[in-house]
Automatic annotation (TrEMBL):
This protein's name: Holliday junction branch migration complex subunit RuvB
Family assignment from sequence similarity: Belongs to the RuvB family.
The species this protein was found in: Arsenicicoccus piscis
Residue ranges annotated for the AAA+ ATPase domain, each copy included: 77-210
Ligand binding (ATP): 46-47, 88, 91-93, 154-156, 197, 207, 244
Chain intervals for the UniProt region annotation (Head domain (RuvB-H)): 281-374
Sorted UniProt keywords: ATP-binding, Cytoplasm, DNA damage, DNA recombination, DNA repair, DNA-binding, Helicase, Hydrolase, Nucleotide-binding
Gene3D superfamilies membership: 1.10.8.60, P-loop containing nucleotide triphosphate hydrolases, Winged helix-like DNA-binding domain superfamily/Winged helix DNA-binding domain
Cell location: Cytoplasm
Domain notes per entry: Has 3 domains, the large (RuvB-L) and small ATPase (RuvB-S) domains and the C-terminal head (RuvB-H) domain. The head domain binds DNA, while the ATPase domains jointly bind ATP, ADP or are empty depending on the state of the subunit in the translocation cycle. During a single DNA translocation step the structure of each domain remains the same, but their relative positions change.
Reactions mediated catalytically: ATP + H2O = ADP + phosphate + H(+)
């Protein structure tokens, strides 16, 4: 990855790692789950602001719309809302929409930022009535803070501990009613008492190609990119059912069309650009294929433990588990068995490999369909 020219257009948003010798530190993994400041700015600009402009997830949208409308009619704060699902499907977007629909301010923080109960107490005690508290990655919050949150969510009260040791006293502090919107990619990791405090849980699922095409049409308009329907359909079909990936690929195809074509995102530009960026015909990216290749070529199709598999592809187990695996399982490439992950017949076929004789590659995924993997 070194020696790329500094004005290489395909490095896109990641072109910031210019080293002293003019080479790049950045890799061109534009379709991975990482994001940087620029990326977040573009994402924010592309976020739908209201439920009515949010394409896809009809079930969650209808449910959410009902919960919010009922609260509005009662002139009360709605129940706490939990949004779960793989990365990039719209959890943060929906949290912002909840606040917008309620016409209430939103306070944004995340599990990793709350390492002590005191961090949470400070936030809770400063909430205004009806405010929305968005807790991203809520499964990564410290245990002690979790317990404080149960109480606050249920009784709108926190116990502020004053002093230390035997002389410490808990002073109860009443809170005005507010709404917690929690987001998690791993709802299975939430302790049951916390999960139970949410009156409504929306499970986001991968988008179909039609909804993704609608999202892309909107994004192309906002980015002032000229695009043909078949060009957008091509991108939609290769976006792993994920709007974040769809939007990112759109920007790469736009780059390609600007440099090699007339600036129009059409099917030919989409195909050429996606090939350049290692996104295959079914939308699998380098990480996805890396996982399948490791499974088939190094472990004879598995089963193999998640951590071993992650080491083989040079990624964190968590990345493999939350980013690559849910989609591979859902599309039937990867199977979760009690003894580890295994490649399905489809995986061997997709990689153009022949499964070793004598093994019967399982064809049906065994997971619970919610992307929860022990
Ligand atoms: N239904 C949708 N319509 C249009 N754009 C969407 C939709 N869902 C998500 N997006 C876009 O995809 C990007 C990622 O969405 P968002 O940040 O809400 O995902 P997320 O579920 O919070 O992901 P993560 O788990 O990584 O935090 C945003 O730019 C957003 O604009
Ligand atoms: Mg998010």
């Amino acid at each position: 990855m070194t020696g790329r020219s500094p004005d290489d257009p395909f490095l896109g948003e990641r072109a910031e790692g210019v080293l002293d010798d003019g080479s790049y530190e950045a890799t061109a993994r534009v379709v991975d789950a990482g994001s940087d400041a620029d990326e977040r700015t573009v994402e924010a600009a592309l976020r739908p602001r209201r439920l009515a402009e949010f394409p896809g997830q009809p079930r969650v949208r209808d449910q959410l719309s009902l919960v919010l409308e009922a609260a509005r009619r009662r002139d009360a704060v709605p129940d706490h809302i939990l949004l779960s699902g793989p990365p990039g499907l719209g959890k943060t977007t929906l949290a912002m929409i909840v606040a917008a629909e309620l016409e209430r301010p939103i306070r944004v923080t995340s599990g990793p930022a709350i390492q002590h109960a005191g961090d949470l107490a400070a936030i809770l005690s400063s909430l205004a009535e009806g405010e929305v508290l968005f807790l991203d990655e809520i499964h990564r919050m410290a245990r002690a803070a979790e317990e404080m949150l149960y109480l606050a969510m249920e009784d709108f009260r926190v116990d502020v501990i004053v002093g230390k040791g035997p002389g410490a006293t808990a002073i109860p502090l009443e809170l005005p009613p507010f709404t917690v919107v929690g987001a998690t990619t791993r709802s299975g990791l939430l302790p049951a008492p916390l999960r139970d405090r949410f009156g409504f849980t929306g499970h986001l699922d991968y988008y179909n190609a039609v909804d993704l095409a609608a999202i892309l049409t909107r994004s192309a308009r906002l980015l002032a990119v000229e695009a043909t329907d078949d060009g957008l359909a091509e991108i939609a079909g290769r976006s792993r059912g994920t709007p974040r990936i769809a939007n990112r690929l759109l920007r790469r195809v736009r780059d390609y069309a600007q440099v090699h074509g007339q600036g129009v995102v059409d099917r030919a530009a989409a195909q050429a650009a996606l090939e350049l960026f290692d996104v295959d015909g079914l939308g699998l990216d380098r990480l996805d294929r890396g996982v399948l290749e490791a499974l088939c070529k190094r472990f004879g199709g598995g089963p193999v433990g998640l951590s071993t598999l992650a080491v083989a592809v040079g990624e964190e187990a968590d990345t493999v588990e939350t980013v690559a695996e849910p989609y591979l399982v859902r599309e039937g490439f990867l199977v979760r068995t009690p003894r580890g992950r295994a490649a399905s017949a489809l995986a061997w076929e997709h990689l153009g490999l022949t499964p070793p004789s004598g093994t019967s590659a399982p064809t049906l995924p065994l997971d619970d369909g919610e992307g929860r993997f022990g």
